[in-house]
Amino acid sequence: MQYRTLGRTGMRVSLLGLGSMKFGRTEGLRYPTGEAPPTLTGLATLLAQARELGVNLLDTAPACGVSEERLGELLSAQRQHWVLCTKVGESFVSGRSCFDFSAAQTRASVQRSPQRLRTSYLDIVLIHSDGNDTAIIEDGGAFDALAQLQRQGLVRAYGMSHKTVTGAALAVERCDVVMAPLNLAQRAELDVIVSAPKHGCGVLIKRPFDSGNGAGSALERRRNLQFIANTAGVSSIVIGTTSLEHLRNNVELLDDAVRDL
After folding, report:
1. Do residues 236 and 6 make contact, with C-beta atoms less than 8 angstroms apart?
2. β-bridge pairing 83-88 and 177-181
3. Which whole number is the average pLDDT over 23-32?
4. What pLDDT does 148 receive?
5. Which domains does the chain have, with CATH numbers?
6. How many CA atoms lie less than 13 Å away from 68 in the CB half-sphere?
7. Residue 235: pLDDT band by 50, 70, 90 thresholds?
8. What is the mean pLDDT of the chain?
9. Burial group, residue 206, by CB count within 10 angstroms (0-12, 13-18, 19+)
């Protein structure tokens, strides 16, 4: 597994990160589903496999249902081995997403997530945008609250999981970290991602396979991963799965792709 430095944060993250949406939510998803969340025993086995393969980045969020709580049950004894990324701004309640980007709600969310994850600090906290990136950034309430929480030592790095190219361009100038979509078919933010290092901003990639809709053959996935890994500015590619086989295959494909760069 290759590791890269996440912008100015100094954190070293695995080139493949593990997304946790499927760990605790089955409703209202962008990608094909139907599978039940893993049992706690199954999740423990998946995390052990991820560690063995060299994965150290876990991406979660309040919008991932009960994923934070389930991870907290398993990670408290091995906290030092993981870089934990969670979100603020979106929650998933009674089958629908609710958004609140106020400073007060941001602080409340950052206080709640460590309790669920059973940790005293959060490595990365991203604003989970509803699509109104510019308004969220220019209002500043959530960003100001995260900056204060960073000064207090509760958050090591903060940023935004944005939804628009304009939002991406604004965010890389202000954030420690952004989470951006990128794949061979979706390159709208390529220039912004490439520009991120000059701002000291780390980049996590979401939807590398178009949320599972464009996964394709092993060769197509490998080409996709090679394109992303070879893009300047990319620190980690976050892929969600509950399958040991899929996790192992993704790591092998990524290792092959990087070896050929």
Report:
1. yes
2. unpaired
3. 67
4. 96
5. 3-259 (3.20.20.100)
6. 26
7. very high
8. 91
9. buried
